[in-house]
Amino acid sequence: MADVTLSAKDSPKDAAFEIQRLIRIMAQLRDPRSGCPWDIEQDFASIAPYTIEEAHEVADAIDRKAWDELPGELGDLLLQVVFHAQMAAEDGMFDFADCAAAISDKLIFRHPHVFGDESRDKSAEQQVKDWEAIKAVERAGKAERGTLDGVALGLPALTRAVKLQNRAARVGFDWPNATEVLDKITEETAELVEARDSLGADALEEEFGDLMFVMANLARHLKIDPEQALRRANTKFTRRFGAIESALAAQGRRPEDSDLAEMDRLWDQAKLAEKARA
C-alpha cells in the first residue's frame, strides 16, 4: 500500500498513484475510529454545497487567468468527487472506480466519430446535433419522456434557464431572433413596474423572475454565457468600487464618509482610467 503521508513533491508524478493516494487519504479521514470528526459527520447533502462552491472557484481561476492557482482549485474539485465516492462506498452503493468508469463509458458512447466507425468529416454544428441525438437516447433509457426532463435542479438559476430554453428550442419553442426577445424584455419590464406600483411582494418577485428568464434567453440568442457575463460584471464592479475606496483612503476617508454624488464621480474617473489603459 502506498504511503499516504508522502508529500506531493516526494511522490512520483504518476496520475494513477496520486489518485489512489487521494482515495486512501479520504478513506482514512472517514475512518470511524481514527479519522477526522468533521469529515466523519458529513453526508451527501452537507457536502453538496462545497462541491458547487469548488466548481465556481475553478471557473473564477479560469476567468482571472490565474493558471498558477488552477491546479489547486481543480484538486479541490477532485476532492469533492472522491469525498462523495467514499461515502457511497461506505454505504455499498458505488465507489470512485464506478464514477470513472461511468464517465469513460459515456465519453466513448457519445463520440462514435472518434471511438467508433462514424466519420469525423462533419461540421461542429452537425456534431452538436449528433451529440443531442445521443443524449436523447440516453434520456429515453432513463425514462425521461418530457423535453425538459433531466435538467438538474441544483444548477445555478441562470444556467438552468439557458438549458431549459435550449431544450425547448430543439422542438421549435423559441423566438426566431434576438429582436423579438428584446421586445419581450420591454413587455416584461413594464409588467415589473406595474407589479412594483400596484401588486404585492410575491407578484413583484414573479415578474422579476420572468424578466431574468427572458434576459437569459437574450443571452442565448446573442451566444453569450449569462453566468460568465455576470461574473465579469461582478469583477468590474468590485474593481471600480475598490478604486473608489482607494481614492477616498488617500484622503483618510471611507465610503461611509462620502456621499453618492462624490462616489459617482470617483466611479466615472475609475471608468475613464480603465478605458485609457485599454
UniProtKB/TrEMBL annotation:
- Name the InterPro entries for this protein: MazG-like_dom (IPR004518), NTP-PPase_MazG-like_C (IPR048011), NTP-PPase_MazG-like_N (IPR048015), NTP_PyrPHydrolase_MazG (IPR011551)
Domain NTP pyrophosphohydrolase MazG-like, by residue range, is 42-115, 181-240
The Gene Ontology biological process annotation of the record reads: dATP catabolic process; dGTP catabolic process; dTTP catabolic process; dUTP catabolic process; response to stress; TTP catabolic process; UTP catabolic process
Q: Name one matching Pfam family.
A: MazG
Gene Ontology MF annotations: ATP diphosphatase activity
The reaction(s) annotated as catalysed by this protein in its Swiss-Prot or TrEMBL entry are:
ATP + H2O = AMP + diphosphate + H(+)
What are the TM regions of this chain, as residue ranges? none
Entry's EC annotation: 3.6.1.8
* Family statement drawn from the similarity comment of this UniProt entry: Belongs to the nucleoside triphosphate pyrophosphohydrolase family.
NCBIfam families in the record: mazG, PRK09562.1
Q: What name does UniProt use for this protein?
A: Nucleoside triphosphate pyrophosphohydrolase
